Amino acid sequence: xxxxxxxxxxxxxxxxxxxxxxxxxxxxxxxxxxxxxxxxxxxxxxxxxxxxxxxxxxxxxxxxxxxxxxxxxxxxxxxxxxxxxxxxxxxxxxxxxxxxxxxxxxxxxxxxxxxxxxxxxxxxxxxxxxxxxxxxxxxxxxxxxxxxxxxxxxxxxxxxxxxxxxxxxxxxxxxxxxxxxxxxxxxxxxxxxxxxxxxxxxxxxxxxxxxxxx
Length: 214
Description:
The protein has about 210 residues and is mainly alpha-helical. Helices cover about 60% and strands about 5% of the residues. The two termini are about 30 Å apart.
């Protein structure tokens, strides 16, 4: 059931751009709205389907040979987190030329795919995999996403004293997917065996209880 829920949860965001492409705008926007409290949905940190490129990062990401989000939208001052253009970047879902935005950002997509992938592996191994050691979980899952995410976050604060310590940076789609996938896989590997152990104990408790009742 958990894998089914995860598959639906990570699959619906891809249905939104597909519906937009098919001209079914109302149900597509309903999906975007449903996921909006769960993700920032910035167009420059999201995947696009049915367009010229799979993503359109900010120019500050430093990727060569691709169109940037600034170029395709004409929005300015996107590097400033407090600028109203960030709200416009969130509301932008795409068009026929550039494609349509997936309803979850790149990192979230990778996280939930990682959770789903491990869930499938865990099921195929009949739930016999031992849990990932907490130290490895911190090193492999928490460390990379924390370093990439927080270094980006803090570097974009408009504090002069902080700018002297940390240069402005915008992460790339590759790093978001990599760190998100590591977090999803690592967290599932750390947590799922414990969840299964707890559920097995609960099942045994009720089996014994019903056996006594009979």
